[in-house]
Design a protein that fits this description.
It is built from 10 helices and 18 strands. The protein is α+β, with helices and mostly antiparallel strands and about 425 residues long.
């Protein structure tokens, strides 16, 4: 229900509202005290009241003298007899909306309004922000400026922690699910801890806000991680394509930046990794073949001379020397692994990746991550990226063997029957995920 004050300050109406006091009770009834300044030259004034049902209506002048009046609908005709101010007192039961468990009072006033809530009422919503909130005789008293007013409340005390509790569960579940995927959520966990501290201090509003922020940070980390993973893969492909096409002019910088991007990703700075990966793709795409650089004609001329001389020497040797019988290089026994199929399906493989694949085939289709690090003298981060790169392309699979990670050729390319793995090998054993 909306109670609208139609008695806006107006010279034609003969009065100006100055103050409104509303005293609410647990049964929904309200006592109203309405103060107005009057035009003393008028003998009678018509005033619109708040509500539609009135009981115990009394009107006095500024000296407390009772005045005569006639009630007509939602307005009252007052015989002011030259008074410069009046006060209207009455009770009404229809100022509050008593639907459901949460009650509300809605009013529109042209003057300051003072609303006192029932005993032990709990405020659920306020609009606008009151000028003051005080406790008078154990009851909450709110003072509002002129305008539209809404106060929602429930009778008795309410557990205000329920919103924070629900937000806590949602944040905890979101962080747990994201961490299972190996995503770094340090910011989300720090915010969650701050929310727990606010909750323990019973600052439930702040706790709920922080729990919701922690959940948002965890979900954002997952999204940014996925974007960064795709961008890093595209950056690697751009570099591998440049290597395959012998476009090396900017590759050293691109590969160095890629290492830094992976470091940022590992530390959980996914936005930085994403930004760097996108720049690396552009850098690798701009890389060109050194001898095709039009800004270096001397290099072009020198290359032509060397090529001509080399061709002359080779042709001369062919005339005077019989061809030596070329010893056929035997590939290591690969059993069922079709290594050529791997290279054919993945033409942009890096040279070091190909060497690792050949080694895996040589040793029976698989090896521990630590063994690959030792065999190829790789740092942890480089080995991690290499294995993830081959795994992402579907060339290898990984599995846990005790506390180590075993890397093996994907079965789609064929694989040796499982062989006994000597756990006493001489290479260093490291925990899974340390490469």
């Amino acid at each position: 229900m909306i109670a609208v004050n139609a008695a806006v300050a107006s010279a034609e109406e003969g009065y100006t509202p100055t103050q409104l006091k509303v005293n609410l009770y647990t049964d929904g009834a309200a006592d109203v005290e309405y103060s107005l300044d009057m035009d003393p030259t008028l003998m009678r004034v018509n005033v619109t009241l708040f509500g539609s049902a009135y009981e115990s209506l009394m009107i006095t002048d500024g000296e407390g003298v009772f005045l005569d009046f006639n009630l007509h609908g939602d307005s009252v005709n007052i015989d002011t007899v030259g008074s410069d101010s009046v006060k209207i007192f009455y009770s009404t039961s229809d100022l509050t909306d008593k639907t459901g468990s949460m009650w509300a009072i809605r009013m529109t006033t042209s003057m300051e309004a003072e609303i006192r809530l029932p005993t032990a009422a709990t405020i659920m919503n306020l609009n606008p922000v009151p000028r003051s909130i005080v406790i008078v005789d154990g009851r909450t008293q709110l003072t509002f400026p002129a305008g539209a007013i809404l106060v929602s409340y429930v009778q008795g005390s309410v557990d205000m922690s329920w919103g924070a509790r629900e937000a806590r569960i949602n944040a905890r579940d979101a962080i747990k699910e994201v961490k299972i995927e190996g995503i770094v959520v340090d910011d989300a966990e720090e915010t969650f801890q701050a929310a727990e501290e606010a909750f323990s201090e019973e600052d439930f509003y702040e706790a709920q806000k922080l729990f919701e922020e922690a959940m948002d940070l965890a979900l954002a980390a997952k999204t940014n991680s996925e974007k960064a993973t795709i961008a890093l893969a595209l950056a690697e492909r751009a570099i591998n394509a440049a290597i395959y096409e012998n476009r090396k002019s900017l590759l050293n910088q691109a590969e160095t930046d890629l290492d830094d991007a992976y470091q940022a990703y590992s530390s959980g700075d996914y936005l930085l990794a994403l930004s760097m990966a996108e720049e690396i793709s552009v850098l690798a795409g701009r890389s060109i073949m050194p001898f095709l650089d039009s800004s270096n004609p001397i290099l072009l001329l020198g290359g032509s001379v060397v090529l001509a001389y080399t061709t002359y020497v080779l042709l001369s040797r062919r005339r005077i020397e019989p061809l030596a019988e070329v010893e056929e290089i035997q590939e290591p026994e690969t059993v069922d692994v079709d290594i050529e199929l791997i290279f054919k399906q993945h033409p942009y493989l890096r040279l070091d990746d190909k060497e690792v694949i050949r080694y895996l085939v040589e040793v029976g289709g698989g090896a521990f991550a630590a063994e690959l690090r030792q065999r190829f003298d790789l740092p942890k981060s480089s080995a991690w990226r290499m294995i993830r790169r081959l795994e992402r392309d579907g060339i290898v699979e990984t599995r846990a063997v005790g506390r180590e990670t075993f890397v093996e050729i994907n079965p789609v390319y064929g694989r040796l029957p499982p062989q006994d793995i000597d756990m006493d090998t001489s290479f260093q054993m490291v925990p899974e995920g340390s490469y």
